[in-house]
């Protein structure tokens, strides 16, 4: 089978598909991929970094104050049977069930991905694609 595929690719004209309406030979290339599993991703986002990112995106005034009020100065205690621990400040994580949480995480991961934007990825139609993301699922791609 491998030999047949190799022969078909070798005998294909540049930029043409092997059969009508199929994948262009431009798509037939070696690709390295890395699937990233963000373990407890939503729990690890630091509040200070969220605020910094929002400021870099020129989000300020009332919107920034609302987000700060939701996330800043949170406290939690742990209760085991009849005993309760001292309250501790929560400095990271986005709130479970909060409608802002997926968007805040997406902004956080977007800023990380912008740092790798120039790295070589898969070339499709003249575009460099080096990452594919949805919520906390990420695939890095390299040629």
Highlighted features:
single chain, 143 residues, alpha+beta, two-stranded antiparallel sheet, 9 strands, 34% helix, 22% strand, RT_dom, Retrovirus-related Pol polyprotein LINE-1, DNA/RNA_pol_sf
How would you sum up this structure, described in words?
By secondary structure, this protein is of the alpha+beta class. The protein has one domain (13-142). It is built from five helices and nine strands, in the order αβαααββββαββββ. The protein has helices at 2-10, 41-44, 47-56, 61-71, 101-114; strands at residues 32-37, 74-76, 79-80, 83-84, 88-90, 122-124, 127-129, 131-134, 137-142. A three-stranded antiparallel sheet has the order 1-9-8, with no helix packed on it. Strand 8 (131-134) and strand 9 (137-142) form a beta hairpin. Helix 3 (47-56) runs antiparallel to helix 4 (61-71) and helix 3 (47-56) crosses helix 5. The model has no long low-confidence stretch (mean pLDDT 80). Residues 1-143 form the Reverse transcriptase domain. This is Retrovirus-related Pol polyprotein LINE-1. InterPro entries: DNA/RNA_pol_sf, RT_dom. It comes from Elysia marginata.
């Amino acid at each position: 089978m491998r030999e047949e595929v190799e022969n078909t690719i070798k005998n294909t004209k540049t930029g043409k598909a092997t059969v009508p309406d199929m994948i262009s030979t431009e798509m037939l290339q070696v690709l390295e991929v890395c699937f990233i599993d963000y373990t407890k991703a939503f729990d690890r986002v630091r509040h200070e970094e969220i605020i910094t990112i929002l400021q870099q995106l020129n989000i300020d005034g009332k919107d920034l104050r609302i987000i700060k009020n939701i996330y800043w100065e949170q406290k939690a205690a742990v209760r085991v049977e009849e005993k309760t621990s001292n309250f501790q400040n929560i400095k990271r994580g986005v709130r479970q069930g909060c409608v802002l949480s997926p968007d805040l995480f997406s902004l956080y991961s977007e800023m990380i991905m912008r740092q790798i934007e120039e790295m070589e990825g898969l070339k499709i139609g003249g575009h460099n694609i080096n990452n594919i993301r949805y919520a906390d699922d990420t695939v890095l791609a390299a040629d």
